[in-house]
Design brief:
Chain lengths: 134, 189
């Protein structure tokens, strides 16, 4: 059991929130793939193990993730949807409820690697659908 | 009847017709009037129904020329704004890198040479300092190009149950043919 009280293993039906801090990375009807692209060095995408409700907790976590900067909303998807794209999920606390999407495609050619990752990110964005806006 | 009519869209948003036509005294009169005046027949040199017809035809043709021109200018301005917004590290609160200036310049070149009959993309910053160009026709039909500091452009698309990715070289003058083909097939042009 983690400090947050959550189990180490992320169940398939758990919801994950990717907070949106940049207004060009989404529009009302969809989240863009760029919101899910991994960090260049760590090759991970940071998410929080939380769904839409309760709202207060969701936005409190956004405050932790963004150091109180303005959050526009969150892309919400399930662990099953992440694994369906052949990506891995690992609990990564602290902070509480934090997890990382790992296992992004890795090849020697940097542009080909980016193309492969872009395809995965597009599938995640498609799975997330409409963002939940604040 | 006019001998010629020239049409030129200006970045300020106005569209002007200019030309000359013979007067009753066999001298050529030159005119430059606004499009709206032309259509409304408000300017005396274009009272002729023939010229009015020209104006209506041109109005229709201009819709296909003028709209992308102004939208492209607006998109280039949005690119400048994005560059300003994402010029410092951590703009996404996930430790993103600032936009790479080569990526910004290359995006500008790409948008300038994008054929006018293709829809314009939306732009978004990526955490590694690249810029995404997104064409989203529907939730299941979209294409994204990642423009970075290299002239090799990674891209990926979803089209119903089909999907894929590739990399093409961009010479700064024309859109790579396979990429344009993929884009046209997605937007059904």
């Amino acid at each position: 059991m983690l400090a947050s009280g959550l189990p180490e293993h992320i169940a398939d039906d758990e919801h994950l929130a990717r907070f949106l801090f940049q207004s060009n990375q989404f529009k009302a009807a969809e989240v863009k793939s760029s919101a899910f692209m991994p960090h260049r060095q760590s090759q991970e995408t940071s998410v929080f193990r939380h769904g839409v409700t309760p709202l207060e907790t969701l936005w409190a976590l956004a405050g932790v993730a963004g150091a109180q900067r303005k959050v526009y909303g969150a892309a919400i998807l399930t662990a099953r949807q992440v694994r369906a794209v052949a990506l891995d999920l690992m609990a990564d606390e602290p902070p509480a409820r934090h997890a990382a999407i790992r296992g992004w495609p890795s090849v020697a050619d940097p542009e080909l690697q980016k193309a492969l990752q872009l395809e995965c990110a597009k599938l995640l964005a498609q799975a997330a659908g409409r963002p939940f806006l604040k | 009847m006019s001998e010629f009519i020239q049409v030129k869209p200006y970045s300020s948003g106005g569209v002007f017709y200019g030309g000359r036509f013979p007067s009753s005294t066999a001298k050529c009169n030159y005119f430059t009037i606004t499009q709206r005046d032309f259509i409304n027949n408000a300017a005396s040199p274009v009272a002729s129904p023939v010229l009015r017809k020209h104006g209506e035809d041109l109005e229709r043709n201009l819709d296909t020329l003028r709209t992308p021109y102004h939208k492209k200018e607006a998109l280039l301005e949005a690119l400048d704004e994005l560059d300003r917004e994402c010029s410092t590290p951590n703009w996404d609160c996930y430790h993103a890198l600032p936009l790479h200036q080569d990526a910004v310049e290359q995006t500008r070149m790409f948008l300038r040479v994008l054929p006018n009959d293709l829809p314009l993309p939306e732009i978004a910053p990526e955490p590694d300092g690249s810029i995404s160009l997104d064409w989203s026709m529907s939730r299941v039909c979209s294409l994204t190009i990642s423009v970075g500091s290299s002239n090799r452009l990674p891209y990926a698309w979803l089209d119903g149950i089909q999907r894929g990715h590739d990399v093409e070289c961009f010479d700064g003058r024309t859109i790579p043919a396979p990429l344009e083909f993929r884009l046209r097939s997605l937007v059904r042009l």
